[in-house]
Amino acid sequence: MSRILEQIGNRILVGISQAFYAAGYFWEILIETGRFIRKRQFGYGYRVLVMQILFTGVEALGVIAIISLALGVVIIVQGSSILPQFGQGKLVYAILITIITRELGPILTAFIIIARSGTAIATELGNAIVSHEIEAYISFGINPIAYLIVPRFLGVTISLVLLNLYFNLFGLLGSFLVTQFIYPLQMQEYLYNLLNTLKTQDVLSSLVKSITFGIIISTTATYYGFKVERSTTEIPQVAIKAVGRSFILCILADAMITLVYYV
Amino acid sequence: MKFKIRFASQIVGVFVIVGVLFITIVLVLMGINQRWFAKNYYFKSRFPSANGLSVGMPITFKGFTIGKITKLSLTPENTVEIDFYIQDTFYPKVYENSILQLQSNPLGLGGGLVFHQGKKPTEPIPENSFIPSLDTPEGKYLLEAKLVEIPKTEDAVTRLLGEIDPILENLNRVLISVNTLLGTVTASLEGKGPSPLAGTLRQSEKITENIASTTKSLSQSIDQLLANATGITTNLTEITSNLKEGTEVLKDPTGLVQKLLDPKGSLATFFDDNNRLFDQIEGILKEVHANLAELRQFSSFLNTTQPRILGALEEGRQAIRKGHDVLEGLRNNPFLRGGIPPKQPIPTTQKGYRMEEF
Questions:
Q1: In chain B, which residues have their Cβ closer than 8 Å to the Cβ of A162?
Q2: Does B330 score more than 70 pLDDT?
């Protein structure tokens, strides 16, 4: 019995220790990010940031566009054909904004980024550790967090916010244009109703969610990437952990933000 | 170097700019659409109860939403004070003596907070002024003093009744039509009126009468026929009895046949007269033969003389016609009468095919 308690106690202590470590790690990232922005380093760090946005944001644009277009078309077509039968034709705009802008837009974008960039970042950093690149940076006096993590942190977060905006652009406007071939609607009427239904808190919620998910994904991916110690076999394990933990944290954060905004 | 890597900064720049531009445009359009930058004019009002009132409830004027309730509070006098705003575009409509009316209906159709403009056009009342509601004494006074006019609006029940009324009228019309139709049908069935059915029934009645009379006469005829048949049957019975009697007579060996075939009877005498009868018959036949030969000769003579007879007849006919003309001429002599009349050619009624006009 005492051994069980001892094990549970040890686990809790390890958990708390890891949580503190993660918090300290996150704090370090925030400090270095502030320093990065304040110093306006347009050297290598900026180049890494640009490349990160390119890989995370621009390259994921196609997938995001297709998903959001399909989702928007389905909502508009189904909503415009079913809801008027119950005298609730205008609900289609509320449903469109709830799904595209408020809920599914940020979370689906986050899932795509986790699957594409979260694994890539964790694997890249794990490989850097295994090949002693981090030690080389340190020996040259380069802060690996400032050079490797901050551009990825900013790049993933900015990309996620932008991809979320593009998700809305394609989901709300692109889908409308596609729908014209199936279920013609008046452009003016559509935009008027959409803009009347869209509230500031919807936009804010969406932006806050995407920023939060960006921070979670980048921090989790880099955190688990740095967890690799010496073996290459650890790399896929940390990548899987990074993905799994990112999913869970994103869903929890999504639920919390939704609760904060709408309850 | 790959295009994407070479122009990474430009691509990322475009990616960021388009995204930022999109959110900026959306926010600006939202602001314009939702009047973020428009001025609202705030006013106060009072109601006896907060029932039917809520924050964000729209205030309408002539069906347009002109403002919203921003705050509800309970005063120390236990009345409900509301803060509301009127949009800048409708602010000039807020004349003095305007009132608010909370419209509600038990069916939950329509209703809402309605703004009624003061009757006399004035400058808009200043912001934060008190606009009484119709449920307060101030509002009732303004209405009684006819400083404000509330247009007659139909509540849901009246509207429903209004919708039912035409339906009832239509139903009434249908019932009248059905009644008329039933009257016509009844009259027709009685054989009255000008309708085809009535005529048909009348004709049917006549036909029935005719059939009855025909049946009666037919019955009489049949009776007569039956009487005749009875007579005929009686006669037949008599004939049958006669035949029976005749048959019985024939069956009698001492009857007529026996008498005829008797060696001393007439037939035996006829056949046994030494050909006297045959000779007489043969003589008669020879005479007949000679007569027939003479007759044939006469016929051949007639055949040979027939053309001449016909010519003589034709000449005679022509002579008669000329004589007729002469007599006619004499009768119509100019000295006596009018002379010989011109002959009227009598056209033949039969024409040849070549004489026909095409």
A1: 15-16, 19
A2: yes
